[in-house]
Amino acid sequence: MVFPARKNVIDAFSTFIELRGDRFNKWSANSSLRRSMQNCCDSFPQILQQDFSQQERYWSIYWYKNWQSPQSDYVSLAKMHLQAYLQEPLYIFSLKNAGRGITSNNRYDVADFFQMANAEVETVLENFDFRRSSGLKEYFSMAIRTRIRDILRQRNEADVCTEWALLRKISKKVLQKALENQGFGATQIAQYSLAWKCFNKLYVAKQARGTRQLPKPTPQLWQEIANLYNNCVSMLDKDVPPSTAEEIETWLQKAAANVRNYKFPSVGSLDAFNSQDDSNQTSENLLISSDNSPMADMIAEEEFHARQDEISRLNEVLSTALKALDNQSQQIFRLYYREELTQQQIMQQLQTNQSMISRKLRKGKEFLLEKLLEWGKSLHIFVNPNQIKDMSNALEEWLQNHLGDSNMTL
């Protein structure tokens, strides 16, 4: 372990990793969150009788449901507790991927990845379903990898786009959000949006699709765009003055820069998590009533224990199935999920062809899914296409997290 584990649920939901340079320095406590968790634990002392992992799951679902509920008075508070709870997988992800070439142009260190991943917690958790996942941390550890990889691929693509190619790729909604984010007023946003619409109408029609390096429009084309813009403005609002081709070119250059910053901010400009946010919601007197709390309708204690038994059984079923694979398949799974090698890298290491690697992975996962479906039927789970998709996702999550554990043996 590269950093000390948190020993109790109060710490687990109220402390944050403080980095020194590029490595873990210490756990930093947020006093408001600590009081909030202490009040919760005092209100439900029976939860403290469970082991630490069960307490973690119980409170992670509790705060997740508070965060997702529009009727909850503690949405922002719940988000802060979840952000604290996910510090370990955030840091482990950052350690694993810094300098490893997560994309073809990886320029990021541990602190960079940690900051980026922290900023994506809310987006990643939107698709979490506690009924179909082995746990919030397990789901997050899998999903954050995909999310950050997608962001970096898009950022790399945007880096090589000209302003004009980027303006072709975006939607009106993204343009307006980017301008709002920079403090543009409604009138200015309307002007920029109309100029962008005229630009796309005239420029796109004359360009081949699928190119990133679109050239700057010619002076003649800028004048055509300005003429179209002025005709549209005169029909919409006679009080808005006409604009020149030079003005519209400047507007769209600014628009492209704002979109680039909005969609793909530099790591240094990402807002760090502000642990003092919403402090009014976490006052010392915060108490949660067991009658009115989402805890009352969350998971009954008997159901909670049954769920823990199911998770234990799922681990047993998949571990047994994994060991039933042939030795080469087990080796490929280990390299792919634990070492996080690509299929091409595995091919080079094993001195074989990529089609065989791909086939072994596919056939192995089909075998594991078959065993998982058999287990589901034993629990009287009706299997339909959506259920199979859910189980496939659960299998992928299990493989990434359990094989990713260096203490796990095949």
Query: Element order, helices and strands?
Result: HEEHHHHHHHHHHHHHHHHH
Span of the ends, CA to CA: 21 Å
The count of strands amounts to 2
Structural class estimated from helices and strands? mainly alpha
Principal-axes shape call = globular
- Order the strands across the largest sheet as they lie in space: 1-2
Largest sheet, in brief, is: 2 strands, antiparallel
Helix segment tally: 18
Return residue spans where pLDDT drops below 50 for at least 5 consecutive residues: 268-304
Helix content: 55-70%
Whole-number radius of gyration?
A: 26 Å
Proportion in β-strands: under 5%
Let me know the average pLDDT: 79
Summarize this structure as a short list of keywords or feature phrases.
2 strands, 410 residues, globular, 18 helices, mainly alpha
Describe this structure as you would to a colleague.
Helix content is 62%, strand content 3%. The chain is mainly alpha-helical and 410 residues long. Strands 1-2 form a two-stranded antiparallel ribbon. A hairpin with a 2-residue loop joins strand 1 and strand 2 (23-29). The radius of gyration is 26 Å and the shape is globular. The two termini are 21 Å apart.
Write the layout of secondary structure elements.
Blueprint: H1 9-12, E1 15-20, E2 23-29, H2 31-43, H3 52-68, H4 75-85, H5 87-97, H6 110-119, H7 121-125, H8 136-160, H9 163-169, H10 172-181, H11 186-203, H12 219-236, H13 245-263, H14 301-323, H15 327-338, H16 343-350, H17 354-378, H18 385-402
Antiparallel strand pairs: 1-2
Helix pairs in contact: 3-4, 5-6, 8-18, 9-13, 10-11, 10-13, 11-12, 12-13, 14-17, 15-17, 17-18
